[in-house]
């Protein structure tokens, strides 16, 4: 593969909202950019090809990042592969003596390669170990379904999966594990399918419960909150943050954060003094799109995974970082 031919570390992977993300970041010569979710390197490759810039590519999955070595050779000195979580990006880059960057892209969730690799246990269509750990360490999905109480399971399936039949699914899981513990993805999918009927839109009944387990196993929402705060610390004034999310739980966190940080959050009470929340007075971001950007029909036809994608873009102001002031999402 030559530099001109390169589109990613995996030519079969189609990056979502690629043109929109690259246009938003507007890479320029000598600039430093963070691709916080390297995946197949689609965004990274496009940034490197658009301008003589430097990309710090982060992925928490060591196997995924290893595939980036091919790209790193094509762009010597310009692509730095960093294993870790984007929630820690300010620290990860500080370790490399990078204190501020010009743009950050986050393309949330798992990649098609991770889903298609049955040994990772993300898919309810392919049999594999019930794992779902992006980093291959910590608590697996099997540990969760085999040990959590019925109530806890129901709560996470409802909250993270937005599954209306969460109680019924949790009860069925607890009954089935009394027979023998869960270890494979297809057995869990079959237990769920026996409880929940396929909806009119044809979505597999296992989709929502698998989503809930994946979010919990990888603490994806906590990571997103930390990632946004880390981006606030790392972006230089004028730097751009672009986040692509795939479900309402993620998009809500991004939207709430940007609203609070751009001074648009509503006051807790109309009687409360305007100075109550620092986020309302010292905007650290300017939202560049009021509504999220969604893919065009041509993209969703080519890549159905893009259907639920939403891109939010914001520009860092020169106001000091708020995280230390509010200690979290305001
Ligand atoms: C949807 S894919 C990204 C695809 C990429 N934009 C491309 O064009 O090839 C998401 C990637 O982010 C990684 N990931 C998810 N959460 C992460 C986190 N908190 N920190 C670092 N990497 C993460 C996953 O391992 C996966 O490889």
Task: Assess the beta-strand content as a share of residues.
Answer: 5-15%
Estimated radius of gyration: 21 Å
Counting DSSP E segments of at least 2 residues, the number of strands comes to: 7
Instruction: Indicate the structural class.
Output: alpha/beta
Report the CATH C-level class of the largest domain. Answer: Alpha Beta
Q: What is the typical, i.e. mean, pLDDT?
A: 92
Largest sheet composition: 7 strands, mixed
Task: Give the count of structural domains.
Answer: 2
Bound molecules: S-adenosylmethionine
* Helix coverage percent: 40-55%
Distance between the termini: 46 Å
* Sheet with most strands: strand arrangement: 3-2-1-4-5-7-6
- Under CATH, the homologous superfamily of the largest domain reads Vaccinia Virus protein VP39
